[in-house]
Amino acid sequence: MKTRCRYKVTIEDESRLETVAEFSTTPVRWFMLGGIAVLVIMAVGAMVLSFTPARNLLPGYLKESERTANQMQLLRLDSLKMAYETNSAFLDNIMNVLNPVTALRQDSAVSSATVPLSPDSLLPTSQEEEKFVAMMREREKYNVSVIAPLAAESLMFSSVSDNAVVSESSRSSQRAEFIMAKGAPVSAIADGTVIAVSQSMRDGGATIIIQHSKGFLSRISRLGTVLVETGDQVAGGQIIALTNRGNGKKGEIVYLEMWHNGDSLVPYEYIEKQESKLPPYPVVDKDVGRGRL
Predict the structure, then answer these.
(1) pLDDT single digits (tens) 45-83
(2) Tens digit of pLDDT for each residue in 20-43?
(3) Rg of the chain's alpha carbons, rounded to an integer?
(4) Nearest 5 degrees, angle CA 104-CA 150-CA 91?
């Protein structure tokens, strides 16, 4: 007669030499116990997935309406992200155009912070690099002295006001100073689209940025009351703001800056140089330091 194999598991307390528990069974029963344990685990898992929020993690469990709603929310999130990145890039470009030196310093600071260089890795400037830098400088001079005036020939630029007076010190500067009366109207220098309207304590009032045709951009700052909004189409000579109304007896200073394809221009060289009538009210000349009629 063939004997059956049996396995025995004994749990003993060695300190007392006593048997705590003892199990003895055959391999078939071990397989049966393992199968029962697997079934119990599967039943517990099914109950967890059926009666807890974990069922939402199952692929394909969501209803068709819920899945569609989730997809629409994801699409909206992607659209908002794209709009945010586009607006951020647009604002960064404007800041780079308005403050190219500051933008260059920030880029240099970021690059030096992210990728620290060893002093041994800084090589002297080669002749090719010097030639390239000289070529880019000549190209920038050519853009400012030749291309910008040619592009401006078909445009009609005008002063910010018929009664405004350009200070002598700013006629060769990239930021023209117009001396005007308090509460006087300020006009756009040419046709264009208002792309930004902001308030800045540093500029001493409101600022309006207008995009003109053929790559020209103008910024008028130190304004009081603004009469246009972002996105408005304006014509040359159209009143877009009023100057500040201070308590002092002196006139107001309005700044005008111009760019062409990112290159800074001297505004006095592009606005109409017609002899304007002096305003009938006192205007303070910063260079002279006294009022004149």
Answers:
(1) 888 877 777 766 666 666 667 777 877 888 788 888 888
(2) 888 777 777 778 888 899 999 999
(3) 39
(4) 30
